[in-house]
Every structure is written in structure tokens, then in C-alpha cells.
Amino acid sequence: MSAQVRLSMILRFAFALFLVLTCGAAERDAAKPAAGAVGDWPRWAGPHGDCTSDEKGLLRAWPKAGPKVLWRIAVGAGSNHPSVVGDDLCYAQLEDDQRRETVRCIDANTGKEKWSHTYEVPPIWHVGWGQLGVRATPTITEKFVYAIGTFGDAFCFDRKTGAIVWKRSFKQESPYLDGTLKGAGNLEWKGFNGALVPLGDKIPYFYWQGGNPAIPAWTKTAVSNKMQFYAYDAATGKVAWKYEENCPPGSRGPGLITGSGLPIKFRGEDCLVVHGNRQWKILRQADGKQLWN
């Protein structure tokens, strides 16, 4: 498949999703980015994470009759875009019964399914804007596909077979989201939006911002007055490190924020820029140590 055809398929598929919405496992290189051809789109915001492509010679306008349709499939609700590497096209969706989500890998040449995994989720009214479906875009690496659903169901799949390498429920790790502190869950919460994007052998994710004093509506817990940022082992899903500090007096945080920070080079080391406790902080990717704020 040519690079131009591949990108046009990505754009067409993303538009289809928009229409639906609106009408060794432990090795360091286990999560190495997929080394695909120019035009591959392996993760949210593209190969460079900045919504740009290295392709050349693309059409600036469609033909009058529109681009030729190579294949067409029905998809469920979702506000993520598909990821494409080689012949693998992966996306996630909310099923029509609104009680299940699915991660699917199809053949980018034919639209035929290679593998899929479907799992149950709570009623969509347990989360704000639940009808939007799955928010986070799957990430394709050389060996794996990483995905996370609206309610924090995170998976690492074998790219070839779709077998589950690891999974974990981020929702169950927060008493504010699992329903133990607020009825069936926090109705003001808008779901897990950030994609799982490995950086080297780690996945930075799941950031909690508390307050001091905490927001009155929050029931007091051990994390109410903490700021936290986690990194997970990309090969196992286990916590690799956690950065945590107390919230200074006067700070008042929004609660759960899902994201991965901004990767940069700082003093010759791979680092992340994150925001917490009304500060910009630089954390070392290897161990989470704060190097600057």
C-alpha cells in the first residue's frame, strides 16, 4: 500500500468516526515504536506526536467525485482516531448497547478483522459525556498494541495475535472513581482521555492533583492533599515509579488528570515536563526524580 493511499485511508476513517459521533516481554525495547514506512500513523497525533507527517506530494484537494473508496466498514462511537502501521489498523469503540467497548485490529488493505477484544463497562451515565465513546487512541509498537477505555480499562495486546499481555483497571485504583466514595462513581468526571504512549520502556500516565484544603465535595482520603505522577512498565503494566509530593497551603486541584507529560532532553537526560501544584516540573524518565521546577 502506498504512503499516500495509507494517509488517505486514515483521514477517511477518522472522518467516519466523526460522523458516528455527531449523527521478551520485559526487555527494554519491548515497547519500541513501530518502524513503519513514511505515512504510518502509529499513535495519537502521529509519528512525532505533533500532528505532522513526513509524507510528500499529497493532494491539496480531493478529486471532484471524491477519493476512490477501497473498502467500507461500520464502526461504533468513539472520539479517538485509528492508528496505522504497515497493514495493521487499530481503533477502539463503544458498542451499540453502550455496555461494552471493543479494541479492534483490521487489515488496512481490505478492512477485514485480524483480531478484537470486547469487554464490559459500566453504564455510560457514570461518566460525563459517556455517549462520546472511547476517547483514547490505541498505540502500535513493534510488538504490542496499547489501549485504554473510557473507564480506565488498560490493555497491552500482542500485535500479531491480539492476545492480552497485561491489563489493569485504573478506575479501581481511585476511590473517587470506583464508586466507593460517591454513589456509582463521579458523574462530574469525564473519563480517561489520554492515550497510553510508551517512552522507552515506560508509560508515563495517571496523574492526580489534590488540594490543600481539598475540594469540599471530596471525602478525605490519603491522596486528597497529594500531587502524584506515575510511570508504568510498558512490558508488564506494573508501577515503575511514582512521583508524589504534598500540596502546599492554598492549592486546589481538579482531581484526576490523564496524560503523559511532555518528553524533553534536559541536561543530557530523557525527562518529562509535567504540571503540578501550580508549578512546571521536570522529572527524569528513568526514575521519576525531580530535576527542576
Topology record:
Blueprint: H1 3-22, E1 83-85, E2 88-94, E3 100-107, E4 113-120, E5 139-140, E6 144-148, E7 153-158, E8 164-169, E9 202-209, E10 226-233, E11 239-246, E12 255-257, E13 262-266, E14 269-276, E15 279-284, E16 290-292
Antiparallel strand pairs: 1-2, 2-3, 3-4, 5-6, 6-7, 7-8, 9-10, 9-12, 10-11, 13-14, 14-15, 15-16
The largest pleated sheet is described as: 4 strands, antiparallel
CATH class of the largest domain: Mainly Beta
The radius of gyration over CA amounts to 20 Å
Helix-strand sequence: HEEEEEEEEEEEEEEEE
Secondary-structure content class: mainly beta
The count of β-strands is: 16
Classify the fold: give the CATH topology of the largest domain: Thrombin, subunit H
Q: Estimate the mean pLDDT confidence.
A: 85
Question: Uncertain regions: pLDDT < 50 for 5+ in a row?
Answer: 7-30
Strand order of the largest sheet: 1-2-3-4
The rounded distance between the terminal residues' Cα atoms is 47 Å
Would you mind describing this structure in some detail?
By secondary structure, the protein is mainly β. It folds into two domains: 1-198, Beta Barrel (Thrombin, subunit H), CATH 2.40.10; 199-293, no CATH class. Helices cover 7% and strands 32% of the residues. It contains one helix and 16 strands. It has one helix at residues 3-22; strands at residues 83-85, 88-94, 100-107, 113-120, 139-140, 144-148, 153-158, 164-169, 202-209, 226-233, 239-246, 255-257, 262-266, 269-276, 279-284, 290-292. The strands form four sheets. It has a four-stranded antiparallel sheet with strand order 1-2-3-4, with no helix packed on it. Strand 13 and strand 14 form a beta hairpin. The longest helix is centred in the N-terminal third of the chain and has 20 residues, at 3-22. The radius of gyration is 20 Å and the shape is globular.
